[in-house]
């Protein structure tokens, strides 16, 4: 069975959400981040960077939540075959995990960095339910997780961006979101 290594409150929840969406059975292996278990030799064999999430899927050992999401999407036939269409998925996963995440930290620059990005997401969501159009995809897991974290961790007010606020609310209603992203926080 696929193993997912994560902390109690960590980005492993993003992967958990997608595993729940795909209905893939998995074993969650809790790493005690407070105790520094991620820096122990046993864990560093899985991820030399000493960070979660990590998955072990047969012979495949993989870290970085975005890479894991895209791997799962490809293995389970959820990535478009067309290179240009697939690149749209990569674009949003990378945007969520790099540009958007960097704008969330540090706190001193958050108020300046975030508004232009939220405005851009608002524009992209105009007239559509999900970031790539009418259908839910792995790109929504990457982007929706970061937007949900913005609200949960930093209480960012999304009301100036009604399409973004509606989008996050729509994603939060998904059973897999509740089980994966919220359930893992307990
Ligand atoms: N970009 C990485 C970030 C991984 C990351 O920073 N994980 C944190 C938990 S959310 C971690 O393992 N922290 C422990 C440490 O840095 O010692 C990803 O998306 O997987």
From TrEMBL:
It holds the Pfam family GST_C_3. It comes from the Bacteria. Residues 61-186 form the GST C-terminal domain. The keyword Isomerase does not apply. It comes from Thermosynechococcus vestitus (strain NIES-2133 / IAM M-273 / BP-1). Residues 1-80 form the GST N-terminal domain. InterPro entries: Glutathione-S-Trfase_C-like, Glutathione-S-Trfase_C_sf, Glutathione_S-Trfase, Glutathione_S-Trfase_N, GST_C, Thioredoxin-like_sf. SUPFAM superfamilies: GST C-terminal domain-like, Thioredoxin-like. GO terms for molecular function: transferase activity. CDD domains: GST_N_GTT1_like (cd03046). Belongs to the GST superfamily. This is Glutathione S-transferase. PROSITE patterns: GST_CTER, GST_NTER. The lineage of its organism: Bacteria, Bacillati, Cyanobacteriota, Cyanophyceae, Acaryochloridales.
